[in-house]
């Protein structure tokens, strides 16, 4: 009887656990479903049944395209790729140096680099704006990419360093004995060993750049503004056109969602990299 009672209790707990997960997932997905529902419904049905649209249309996407959504998405992709790429390149070089070479004040310097990320972005807006205005970088792709590289570099550096620390030093020493250079060890041995960690770092950096709004609002121009800025400026003749807003949001989330799904197996391996010592 005790075995049957324990088995019944286990099944009840399992059912309750899955039921709780289903409720929480439904709550999280409800706004996403509402966004898709609004994006594909005509304007006259905008305040109709939230779950079942009266009609399906693509007119909101056409309006979004005419409003400049396509160029804004391209700008977001360019800025995200540029900012993430430069940050990862610098983070890899710095992380390998911090991990493999002994230097005075290394821990203090690492903390200082991370502390720059703790500073509120609003405190840097005025000096960066003035500097960019004087250098002619305001409203350019290069200016925004440099800001995003600076913004994502500290966290990327700390993440990648932790992954490199988990690679045994014996491998480096064996490669040195074989006559290989430091660059060869870094790019041919160390980096292939931490590919999951690089993917996780790239995903976090890309998400941070993709969703950034403050610097994009103040430092971009009409030609370089990303989608986050475009969304904040949408206003129709009689107020907000929620169908247009929702259609741009649908297109806006797809690239980053596809990127995360593409990298998810590397991200999961990267987040657990080094937790099991071999």
UniProtKB/TrEMBL annotation:
Family under the similarity heading: Belongs to the binding-protein-dependent transport system permease family.
Main location per the UniProt record: membrane
Record has Membrane as a keyword: yes
Alphabetic keyword roster: Cell membrane, Membrane, Transmembrane, Transmembrane helix, Transport
SUPFAM superfamilies documented for this protein: MetI-like (SSF161098)
GO CC field: plasma membrane
Native source organism of the sequence: Desulfurococcus mucosus (strain ATCC 35584 / DSM 2162 / JCM 9187 / O7/1)
One GO term (biological process): transmembrane transport
Domain ABC transmembrane type-1 intervals: 73-263
Domain of life (superkingdom): Archaea
Membrane-topology descriptor: Multi-pass membrane protein
Subcellular location as annotated: Cell membrane
Presence of keyword Transmembrane: yes
Record-given protein name: Binding-protein-dependent transport systems inner membrane component
Position of the signal peptide: none
Pfam families linked to this entry: BPD_transp_1
InterPro entries: BP-dep_ABC_trans_perm (IPR050901), MetI-like (IPR000515), MetI-like_sf (IPR035906)
TM region(s), chain numbering: 15-40, 72-97, 109-133, 139-160, 198-222, 242-263
């Amino acid at each position: 009887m005790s075995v049957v009672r324990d088995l019944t209790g286990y099944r009840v707990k399992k059912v309750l656990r899955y039921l709780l997960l289903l409720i929480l997932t439904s709550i999280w997905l409800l706004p996403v479903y509402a966004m898709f529902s609004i994006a594909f419904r005509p304007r006259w049905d905008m305040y109709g049944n939230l779950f079942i649209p009266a009609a399906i249309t693509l007119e909101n996407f056409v309006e979004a395209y005419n409003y400049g959504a396509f160029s804004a998405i391209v700008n977001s992709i360019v800025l995200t790729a540029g900012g993430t790429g430069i940050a990862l390149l610098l983070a890899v070089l710095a992380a390998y140096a911090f991990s493999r070479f002994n230097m005075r004040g290394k821990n203090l310097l690492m903390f200082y680099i991370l502390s720059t990320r703790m500073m509120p972005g609003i405190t840097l807006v005025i000096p960066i704006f003035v500097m960019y205005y004087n250098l002619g970088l305001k409203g350019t792709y290069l200016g925004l990419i440099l800001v995003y590289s600076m913004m994502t570099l500290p966290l990327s550096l700390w993440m990648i360093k932790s992954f490199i620390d988990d690679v045994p030093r014996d491998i480096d020493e064996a490669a040195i004995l074989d006559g290989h250079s430091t660059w060869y060890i870094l790019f041919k041995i160390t980096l292939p060993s931490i590919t999951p960690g690089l993917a996780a770092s790239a995903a976090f950096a890309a998400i941070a750049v993709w969703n950034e709004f403050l610097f994009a609002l103040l430092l971009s121009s009409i030609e370089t503004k990303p989608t986050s800025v475009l969304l904040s400026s949408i206003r129709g003749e009689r107020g907000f056109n929620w169908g247009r807003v929702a259609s741009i949001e649908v297109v806006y989330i797809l690239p980053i969602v596809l990127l995360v799904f593409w990298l998810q197996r590397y991200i999961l391996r990267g987040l657990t990299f080094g937790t099991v010592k071999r």
